[in-house]
Amino acid sequence: MAQTKLEQFYQEHRLSLTALSYRLTGSWSEAEDIVQELFLDFHRNGNADGIRQLKSYFMKAVVNRSLNVLKSPRYAREQYIGPWLPEPVFDTAGEELLDLLLKEEHLSYAFMVMLERLTADERAVFVLRESFTLEYPEIADILGKSEAACRKLLSRARQKVKADLPALPLNNTVVSRWVSVFTKAAQTGEFGPLLELIREDAVLVSDGGGKARAALRPIVSKARIAAFWEGITRKGSLRGELVPVRMNGEIGLILYDGGTPVKILLFEGDSQGRIARFYLLVNPDKIKNAPVS
Predict the structure, then answer these.
(1) Among 66, 209, 228, 243, whose CB has the most other CB atoms within 10 angstroms?
(2) Pairwise CA distance, residues 35 & 25, whole Å
């Protein structure tokens, strides 16, 4: 009886709990492991019939485990070489439920990047309140803090991100044009048409993690970003097959070399339909779960 109840709950809430953990850790693969291990541990040692509110119980457990990971030495952003970018979520063909979840909860890549500005506790309160619309008593219970402390954490979090809240969702028609123009520029080496789509104060952030060549600091301004793309194109670093792929509910590009993914590029736009930010991932740990060409 308990096992059947637990299995039913797992099937109904697995993706939502994984999305919660992903928002906290910035890694979908890590989030999947956290949720799966939690249910396996509970299956071996727990009793679902003895818990009145399974959802509250598992949300609290997922948040605690995710925060432990986020605060662990191996996840310390201060020790990371260069900028740290979240791992994208790939919208696997046929996973209608994941596709729906991404649209409903707005797990956009720009939103995930924005969350990196927050401390672990600020991030937890912000996600639970803003994304999952929990009330303060529930948040306080999950985090083991007072309601007053949670309100202060949320206030600080909102102050940190208020200028960077991305417009959601991106217009797929606009992004498809960015993807098409960028792909042609990479193939021809002519970046003039792409320049027309970029804001003057645009930023390019690349994540190599010390495991692949990447800029150690964000590249700022249209001119410098153009020089960056032109430079790596001349060196052959964009040689291969650029394929449009849906990630975090939006369209991005994966560069394949012999069928193996080697680079991921995502875009962030502004309200005028211009490219405000490029996110380039080359760290193999961040792209290992990309679909194989």
Answers:
(1) 66
(2) 12
- C-alpha distances (whole Å) from 94 to each of 99, 100, 170, 251 are 9, 11, 22, 17
Residue tagged 């394929």 (tokens) = 243
Residue 93 has pLDDT above 50, yes or no: no
pLDDT per position as a tens digit, 51-75? 778 888 899 999 999 999 988 877 7
Domains of the chain, first to last: 1-75 (1.10.1740), 172-287 (3.10.450.50)
Is the pLDDT confidence value at 250 over 90? no
pLDDT of residue 271: 83
What is the reported pTM? 0.89
